[in-house]
Structures are given as structure tokens and as C-alpha cells.
Structure prediction request, 228 residues.
Amino acid sequence: MKIKAVCFDCDGVLIDTVASWQIIHKHFGTDSGEMLDRFIRGELTDEEFMADDIGKWKSVQPVIHRDELMRCFQGVKLMPGARELIDALKARGIMVAIVSAGVDLLIGSIAQLLKVDDWISNGFQYDDDGFLLDDGVVRVPAHHKSKMVEKFARINNVDASEVVSIGDNVTDLSMRIPGSHFIGFNGLKQSAIDGFKDAGVVHVTEQDCRLLWPHIFPNESFPAVGGE
Ligand SMILES: [Mg+2]
Prediction:
């Protein structure tokens, strides 16, 4: 395969987090609870799930400012090798995008930090003073990430066969648009481990993004550490 573009999921792939939504829950001492299971089963829309999460935070603290949400993400760390991988891809002229169902406050700051070519994620709405409104903004439906990968390929004039997507959740398999490639990375949930196996895709389980390189560029080792 000849790869021209790489689309990354963010939580659990480029950053060492399970879910950016979970980080806010932790801050407010709340939990998605059974709603998460219902969402995974497809019984809730992304909009309903987000509004429920926001409602749970507001039940603890009725007024929440954007700055407080931003501060929740202060401790987030990049996945080992993430910066090195993105830099090496860009040095090779590969287009890099983040397609995340996570929180835009976090995903946007990571996109900026890593200087990726494009990014999209879900997020929040605020009033004129920066206070959180009740409904979220869905740009990347968690079970249907393909639309955004397709759009990225189309606007950059890249064929599906030249695209590889990388994710840690079974739902990230929806990034694999017809004809394109997919690599599982750091799949921790049993659903991901089984899903990647059933889909017949490579699954890199070590938490080092550089180890993705030989799966993006077969028979090559990572330029900064290999090079023989
Ligand atoms: Mg993820």
C-alpha cells in the first residue's frame, strides 16, 4: 500500500487518556453509568448521550465555565512516540488528521500541539459569558466516523486506498472507509481486542506510537530509531 494520509483517533491513541468525556466526569464526581452501555448498544443518539452527560455535571454544579472545563485537561499527556510519529509522517509529506468523538477543548489543543493538517471533534456550546449550555455539538458521531474520513480524503484529493486510519476502540473501525486501511492501537477493552481480531486488522498493543510505522510503511523501521 502507498499511504498519503493518516487519520488518527485521539483519546487512547495520540494521548494517554481513556476518554476525554471521562476526564470531565471525574472532575465533577459523576459517571455516564448505564447511559454509556445504552449508547454503545445504539439505543441513544450522540446528541442524547452528550446532553445527558452535561446534565449530570450540572446536577452537581449548575453553572460551569469553559475555563473550568479546559482546566480539567491540564494533566493530559501525549502517548509515548506520538510527537515523533507525527513529525516523521509530516517530514515524509504525509497528510495527518485527527477524527475524534472526544471533547474539542482537548482535541483542539492536541491538534495545535502536534501541528496536524486538520482535525475535527465533538464539543460544547456556551453563552456569551462562556458558561456551558445544555446541548453539545455533534460533528463526529462515535459509531459513524467514516463521513469525516471520507471528507478529509476528498478535500485533499487522496484516494481511499492511500488512507490509513488508526484507533483504539471498536467504533473506530467505522473510520475504515471502503478501500482504505486500518490499524488498531492500544485496544484495551475486550470489544476492541475482539473487534480488531474479527476485522482482521493489525493491532499494536504496546503503548508507543512509533511502533505503528512498520504497519504504515511495510518493511520500514521508524526513521529516528531504526535507519539501518
Ligand atoms: Mg479512542
About this structure: The beta strands are 5-8, 95-103, 118-122, 163-167, 181-185, 202-204.
